[in-house]
């Protein structure tokens, strides 16, 4: 029996590095990990994150799994040398920087209908927000990456009101979209914008996962749980949203 391969599926932001504002005030800013759109320093690695990064480099295959767009992932200064990347919350599977042909073939039949669905959802939400009569209505915009409609973005100027959130819930359900929301923003995503689905595709169709392979998933947020569950083992920072919820469940 072969020993199998060691495969790492890893989130990037807040797992392998953190933005400067998220770092403790006394933490050194010596290990640059990402820059912003103007090529200015944005994120750094703590010593623990740097050690974790070094461990991942011993793997046979490392696949970044990130909400970053295809162009934002290029601003990561860590040497992401693997063949595959999963970007834009799972909407894109990249091979050597381009959309993987197998992935494009899988989602291409859905793109036109998805674009129409997202446009319709945006129109319905704008009408719903206008009817609420709030001083500043949340904005709605369909985001695309490499020609693929990724999701409908909803942004509030302050906190997303309960009424606005309820409208998002209703519109998502009515259009067959998945809602992801926090205090200020929301996103309505089509079925293929899913990190777990993209990871399963990479493992099954591209990497050709074998029973002898060992897969570890790294992530920090609840939105990472799905793709981490595709792995054999899961690892999360203890100062993360995910770990906070684990602790709450254990009490």
Automatic annotation (TrEMBL):
The protein's superkingdom reads Bacteria
Task: Return the InterPro entries for the record.
Answer: HAD-like_sf (IPR036412), HAD_sf (IPR023214), TPP-like (IPR024197)
What Gene3D superfamilies does UniProt report for this protein, alphabetically? HAD superfamily/HAD-like
Q: Could you tell me what this protein is called?
A: Hydroxymethylpyrimidine pyrophosphatase
């Amino acid at each position: 029996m072969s020993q199998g391969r060691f495969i790492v599926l890893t989130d990037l932001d807040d797992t392998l590095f953190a933005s400067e504002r998220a770092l403790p005030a006394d933490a050194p800013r010596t290990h640059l990990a990402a820059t912003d759109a103007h090529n200015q320093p944005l994120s750094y690695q703590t010593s623990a994150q740097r050690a974790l990064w070094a461990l991942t480099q011993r793997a046979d295959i490392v696949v970044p799994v990130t909400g970053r767009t295809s162009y934002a992932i290029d601003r990561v200064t860590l040497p992401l040398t693997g063949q595959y990347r999963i970007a834009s919350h799972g909407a894109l599977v990249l091979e050597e920087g381009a959309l993987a042909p197998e992935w494009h073939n899988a989602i291409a039949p859905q793109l036109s209908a998805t674009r129409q669905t997202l446009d319709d959802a945006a129109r319905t939400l704008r009408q719903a927000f206008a009817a609420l009569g709030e001083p500043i209505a949340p904005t709605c915009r369909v985001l695309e990456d490499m020609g693929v409609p990724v999701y409908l973005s909803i942004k509030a100027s302050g906190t997303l009101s309960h009424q606005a959130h309820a409208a998002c819930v209703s519109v998502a359900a009515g259009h067959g979209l998945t809602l992801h929301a926090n205090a200020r923003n929301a996103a309505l995503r089509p079925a293929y914008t899913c990190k777990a689905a993209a990871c399963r595709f990479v493992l099954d169709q591209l990497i050709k996962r074998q029973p002898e392979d060992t897969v570890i998933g790294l992530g920090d947020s609840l939105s990472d749980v799905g793709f981490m569950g595709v792995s054999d083992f899961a690892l999360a920072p203890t100062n993360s949203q995910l770990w906070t919820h684990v602790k709450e469940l254990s009490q």
